[in-house]
Amino acid sequence: MTPSQHPAENADLDVGDLTRAIENFNRYYIRLPTVQKLSFTTLSVLDTLAFGGPKRLTELVRTEQISQPGVTQLVTRLERDGLVERHPDPADGRAVLVHITENGRRIGLARHEDRGRHLLPLLAQLSPEERQSIAAALPALTRLAELGAEAGW
Predict the structure, then answer these.
(1) By CB count within 10 A, which of 7, 26, 59, 125 is most buried?
(2) Taking the CA of residue 64 as centre, how many other CA atoms within 13 Å lie in the half-sphere pointing to its CB?
(3) CB 45 within 8 A of CB 59
(4) Mind listing the pLDDT tens digit for each residue in 2-13?
């Protein structure tokens, strides 16, 4: 049984339709031109640190779904570029926590603002009802993302 065929709890929402809509939008969204020419993985790590707080390298391996050597190399580059810093983990002196710097936060903010500028003219082409539908869905989509984060995805 596929998720979209799951019994009653999904009767009001076709999970396959939701998945396709999110994937189609994500494909467009991650390709928007940006001022900062950074990789998707780099920007994802910066967002993870900006919104989720400091993380161990092992946590970044899990959240970003890349290998331990890949995360280590990426964090080393980000540290060299002044976007993150490593500090000892107060709970375990053998481990380090990766923290985003103010410069890293500024890059993330600039990326969001830049993408917003690209979305505005497209949103203007939607009907008022379509814009209202998107606005009405935002709390549920936000909650869905929170549930995924709580589940460790």
Answers:
(1) 59
(2) 28
(3) no
(4) 544 444 455 688
Question: Can you tell me the distance from the alpha carbon of 91 to that of 88, in angstroms, rounded to the nearest whole number?
Answer: 9
Q: pTM for the whole thing?
A: 0.75
Output the CA torsion sign for 13, 17, 23, 29. negative
CA 116-119-125 angle, 5° bins = 145
Residue identified by tokens 């995924």 is: 148
Q: In the numeric block, which tokens belong to residue 129?
A: 């009802």
Which candidate, 80, 9, 11, 83, places its Cα nearest to that of 45?
83
Write out pLDDT tens, residues 94-127.
899 999 999 999 998 888 888 899 999 999 999 9
